[in-house]
């Protein structure tokens, strides 16, 4: 079952050929008409996990992927059109988007 054409992905952010931080992006992963992966995107299932039978498990991979600047979620850090990186005021905010509370 193909259920999403876009995904929020936490990825390495490079500007001006320098690693800056991890950052969240909205990424186009499937064609809206065919629902097949777009070029450079690899999507697959890994099968059921012991004890987690209620949800599908899979992987999402990228090869030479470039994401438009306007797809970056820039609440805590920013990149200007010239590539200037503006870090968050508190570096701990960068990693807050990766913390998920499983209750």
From TrEMBL:
PANTHER family listed in its UniProt record: ELECTRON TRANSPORT OXIDOREDUCTASE, PEROXISOMAL ACYL-COENZYME A OXIDASE 1
Alphabetized SUPFAM superfamilies for the sequence: Acyl-CoA dehydrogenase NM domain-like (SSF56645)
UniProt pathway: Lipid metabolism; peroxisomal fatty acid beta-oxidation
Gene Ontology terms, MF aspect: acyl-CoA oxidase activity; FAD binding; fatty acid binding
Cofactor(s) recorded in Swiss-Prot or TrEMBL: FAD
Entry's Gene Ontology cellular component terms: peroxisome
Protein name: Uncharacterized protein
Keywords from the UniProt entry: FAD, Flavoprotein
Organism of provenance: Glossina palpalis gambiensis
BP term (GO), one: lipid homeostasis
Lineage, top ranks: Eukaryota, Metazoa, Ecdysozoa, Arthropoda, Hexapoda
